[in-house]
Design brief:
single chain; alpha+beta; seven-stranded mixed β-sheet; six-stranded mixed β-sheet; 34% helix; 27% strand
Length: 393
């Protein structure tokens, strides 16, 4: 087939690498002037690493990222309220331990781009997509791309190709990237601090950025979705004072923010397309389903979508591959959407009672068997078969 992919993000590049390797003619269109990522750090969970391995990008990603062993959150009092170990019960092997891969988007982008190009995919820059005209992508200036047998929408949450109308979430976060400082915080753990549910501070070690030998950290601060302007108006000093008062260990990270532009506001929404496809068009990643990043699954869902779509096209044997793709991903996506919707208000909301429930009841229960094993599987992405009926292939 001739395949046009709209968007050179994580899902788009993974799909390009997989489908070009199958022998399809693949062209990726994106609006950037030069190839480059948008955003800070993220975590590739074990299921996502499986996809990177299939794509041929895992070794390059591991060389730049850093292994993540644990997710630990505590109240400002110091009391633990979140504690998830990836390889609970030592179920991984010494050669392949179960762990997260924390990485900057620039490093992940470089690994995926190299795999897509080595597989034979073509990349077209300066292509701002405004919609669809039959089997062509409509671009600005009233131009369009060559027609394709299949259009893959990997344009993310604001895709003009997707009919998804998601529900805005009341909280988002500001994100930034800083050098890893002299600190007692471990370099193999995601650490978070909470005050009730209306304040959340996080530090994620993310390894290296291409061209920079200094290890990095992604930092984030939870904000109501409408209050970024208020944060800017307060000034950096007020924010730094508040953050370090809540979590003194955050001080050497916060001190590196000297310009508000170093912190980017991210707003989140929740929603899922019941049918993520139409004749000649299929949606993957945030164009098909969106949720809070509370479970750290966004990039992994896009990677799994790309693999499921490639597998469905390869094995359709006369059946509708887009329907096979949707069926393969349905239950995994819906399950994680449900958990995200349930957990997010416990950590990002104005509720007075949910944090009490979280700290006094849910966290103690989470430390009693078999809950640690279930939470480990939830974070790893293996609670359900991620590719449904295609998982064994």
């Amino acid at each position: 087939m001739q395949i046009s992919i709209a968007g050179a993000g994580i899902g788009g590049l993974a799909a390009a690498a997989l489908l070009a390797a199958q022998g399809h003619g693949v062209t990726v269109y994106d609006q950037f002037d030069q190839p480059g990522p948008v955003g800070s750090g993220l975590v590739i969970q074990p299921v996502g690493q499986m996809v990177l391995d299939r794509v041929g990008a895992l070794a390059a990603a591991q060389a730049m990222g850093t292994p993540l062993r644990r997710m630990l959150g505590h109240e400002v009092s110091g009391r633990r309220v979140l504690d998830v170990t990836y390889d609970w019960g030592n179920t991984g092997s010494p050669q392949q331990p179960r762990q997260g891969l924390a990485i900057h988007r620039a490093a992940l982008f470089a690994a995926l781009l190299a795999s897509a190009q080595s597989s034979g995919a073509a990349l077209v820059a300066k292509a701002r997509i405004t919609g669809r005209r039959g089997q062509s992508l409509a671009l600005v200036n009233n131009t369009q791309t060559a027609p394709a047998d299949l259009i893959i929408d990997a344009l993310g949450a604001n895709s003009p190709l997707s009919p998804l109308r998601s529900r805005p979430l009341p909280y988002g976060a500001i994100w930034g990237t800083v050098d890893w400082p002299e600190t007692a915080l471990p370099y193999d753990e995601l650490r978070q601090t909470y005050r009730a549910a209306n304040r959340m501070i996080g530090v994620l070690p993310i390894g290296l950025i291409p061209g920079d030998p200094v290890p990095k950290a992604a930092i984030f601060w939870s904000l109501p979705a409408h209050s970024h302007a208020d944060w800017l108006a307060r000034g950096l000093t007020a924010w730094q004072n508040e953050a370090t008062a809540l979590w003194p260990a955050f001080a050497p990270f916060a001190a590196q923010i000297t310009d508000p532009a170093q912190m980017t506001m991210a707003r989140y929404s929740h929603g899922t397309l019941r049918h993520p496809y139409a004749p000649g068009l299929v949606h993957i990643g945030d164009a098909a389903h969106r949720a809070s990043p509370q479970l750290g699954q966004g990039a992994n869902m896009a990677l799994l979508d790309a693999l499921a779509l490639a597998q469905a096209i390869k094995l359709a044997n006369g059946a509708d591959p887009l329907k096979l793709y949707a069926q393969a991903r349905r239950w995994h996506v819906w399950t994680y959407q449900g958990f995200s919707a349930a957990f997010t208000p416990q950590y990002q909301s104005d509720s007075r009672w949910l944090p009490i429930l979280r700290d006094r009841m849910l966290f103690p229960l989470s430390q009693v068997s078999p809950a640690p094993r279930i939470l480990s599987a939830l974070v790893c992405g293996t609670m359900l078969r991620p590719l449904g009926s295609l998982s064994h292939l």
